[in-house]
Design goal:
Elements: H1 3-10, E1 16-17, H2 23-33, E2 37-42, E3 45-51, H3 52-61, H4 68-71, E4 73-74, H5 85-94, E5 99-104, E6 107-113, H6 114-137, H7 141-144
Length: 145
């Protein structure tokens, strides 16, 4: 399974913020949208990502006036659409990243979460199991002997 297929199943929703957004607005947006990350965009290009991890660290600092640019991950690790799901999982584990932006020729296609990957793999395995059970169930009688 490819990252492109996971994005297709997930859908095209993309949630963003700007470098100048203040911490309380980011918290409100993430809670309202029920998302764990926001891509930071500046003049039409991705400049970073904010996840729950960065928000928690920013909250710990105790300064609600912090701007996204103060606590975002600049130049985050990214994935590409033709990457295999197993390579993606390995990358996410190695880099300790639960959310990876997906880029193709510099264009942001979406964000893949570890949950998205787990769902896609589960669906793929369920389909394979169903097909295998069907194949075994319909195995010709003469081949069983």
């Amino acid at each position: 399974m490819l990252v492109r297929e996971i994005l297709r199943v997930k859908g095209g929703a993309l949630y963003t913020t700007t470098p100048g957004q203040k911490l309380p607005a980011v918290i409100d947006a993430m809670a309202e949208l029920d998302v764990g990350s926001l891509v930071v965009m500046d003049e039409g290009r991705m400049v970073g990502i904010v996840t729950f991890r960065e928000v928690i660290k920013a909250m710990q600092a105790g300064n609600p006036e912090l701007q996204v640019s103060d606590f975002m991950v600049a130049d985050p690790v990214t994935a590409f659409p033709d990457m295999e799901a197993n390579s993606l999982r390995r990358l996410m584990i190695e880099k300790h990243s639960r959310y990876l932006p997906v880029l193709e020729q510099g264009q942001l296609l979406g964000v893949i979460s570890f949950l998205d990957v787990a769902k896609a793999v589960l669906e793929e395995q369920t389909l394979e199991n169903t097909l295998l059970k069907n194949y075994i169930k319909n195995w010709p009688e003469e081949a069983r002997s």
